[in-house]
Amino acid sequence: MSVKLCPNLMVSGIPISLKFYTKVLGFSVSFLIDSERQETKDPHKAVFGLLVHDQAELMLQDKQSLAEELPVFEAQVELNSTSTLYLRGIDPDTVLGRLEKKAVIKGPFKQWYGMKELYFYDPDGYILCVGKQFFD
Question: Which pTM does this prediction carry?
Answer without folding.
Answer: 0.89
